[in-house]
Prior knowledge:
This protein is α/β, with parallel strands linked by helices. 43% of the residues lie in helices and 13% in strands. It has a single domain (3-351), classed as Alpha-Beta Barrel (TIM Barrel), CATH 3.20.20. The strands form 3 sheets. An 8-stranded parallel sheet has the order 3-12-11-10-9-6-5-4. Strands 1-2 form a two-stranded antiparallel sheet. Strands 7-8 form a two-stranded antiparallel ribbon. The chain binds flavin mononucleotide.
Amino acid sequence: MTEQGATVSHRALHRYTGLPVDLPDLEAQARANLDPAFYDYIAGGAEDELTLVDNETAWSRLRLLPRVLRDVTHVDISTRVLGARVASPIGIAPMAMQHRASKDGPLDTARGAAATDSLFVMGLFGAGSAAEVAEVPGSAPRWLQVYILKDRERSAAAIARSAEQGYGAVMLTVDVVRQGNRRRDARNRWAFLQSDGGIEDPNEIFDHALTFDDIAWFRERAGIPLVIKGVLRGDDAAACVDAGADGIVVSNHGGRQLDGAIATADALRDVVAAVDGRAEVYVDGGIRHGQHVVKALALGARAVFVGRPVMWGLAVAGAHGVEGVMRGFCDEIERAMALCGVRSVDEIDASLLAADLREPR
Ligand SMILES: Cc1cc2nc3c(=O)[nH]c(=O)nc-3n(C[C@H](O)[C@H](O)[C@H](O)COP(=O)(O)O)c2cc1C
């Protein structure tokens, strides 16, 4: 099938599945299906939700300078992440508690990701079995996200198993040194992390003593690339890379941790400049449109991740819903690239951004 043919089928699938075409409508439908406390757990952020809101508006504030007359008959949105091919530069962020959104939880997410050749990051903690997810057929890469527990051997064992299970990278999340103060959850008395039928409190079980010195140790245990998630500063990103990280995710955890933290769209440029090509840089938080993805790539990200919209798709239609969300993004990315006059992700560069946005601060 030609690239153009693939695009037409994305649109056709939307019409065929009857899923809402637009994310606010999908969220409304998911909300109607879900226990209100679980909806709040997904949708909410920390404290006044300043960072939650700012994540999305920061992408919308950036302005593009599209090129014209570039023959965009064929637009190829595929790319590579850590050397592995993916159908598009948008992957699925790790999220806990997916089994509360659909019966098969992360298995459905993995199926939806596989159907669209999208990178899927399996959240190890509180989200199901990494081994079962690894068995879902599909050719796109999957990564495993971990937190480091005080019981380091438990984390080390999961990391050591990840390569033989077929995961392409380990993603270590470093921004949960205290659980963010999520008011909606407090009001709902939400017990956020349940594993093996019990409730585990991240404040109790996560190791809060991690430093850059530990990165090399984990990289060695994993034997596969290590991606550090939850970095917002150039100096931290450079220190992670010096310590052996292969990738950095610029993330504020979807505004769920430190309220008042910088929006990721605003943090990305400095991190890209500090990493200076020595590792891949990704970004998540508030990505809701194809044009947001083009902006992220123009600022130097290799790829982006999306969180909540995938949960909405999962809650509305399981694997099919995840597939619909990812196809919708692919469709929008293709259209935004064509309208920017670029035929491949390699042609996306800083010149697509309004002049004042091109240089690091
Ligand atoms: C319901 C939910 C659960 C999450 N669980 C995790 C997790 O277990 N580990 C992690 O690293 N990030 C987790 N995150 C953060 C996401 O990986 C990601 O950083 C964020 O959702 C991206 O922002 P977006 O939802 O605006 O796209 C979670 C986010 C949500 C919404």
